[in-house]
Amino acid sequence: MKLxxxxxxxxxxxxxxxxxxxxxxxxxxxxxxxERMPPNTAETVHYHQYAxxxxxxxxxxxxxxxxxxxxxxxxxxxFHIKAGETHRIINEGDEDLEFVLSSQPSTNNDRYPSQxxxxx
Length: 120
What we know:
Elements lengths: L10 E5 L3 E8 L4 E7 L3 E2 L3 E2 L4 E8 L1 E6 L2 E6 L3 E4 L5 E5 L5 E8 L7 E2 L7
Antiparallel strand pairs: 1-2, 2-3, 3-11, 4-10, 5-12, 6-9, 6-11, 7-8, 7-10
């Protein structure tokens, strides 16, 4: 067992346009990360064939686009994305967006560009 946190992660990484991530748990069955997105940033639209994901918003407001629908999720709220759903997260706000992201199983080698996903 090892205590992990944003200040003591397994690994730090950067993605997108100035976004940061901290790996807290990384196994084949489960991935848990904390991520930060600066204002006016977005990830690319994609899907996961096998992984479901749960986002819990710590700070700011997230906009999720899921299968052509838009959802606003505030701090203290969570959002579940099922495997196969085309999605992305966007920070349209004027402050950093921070969230915890749990994926089961891990999304390692399970991220595909936007298109109609095949059934898992």
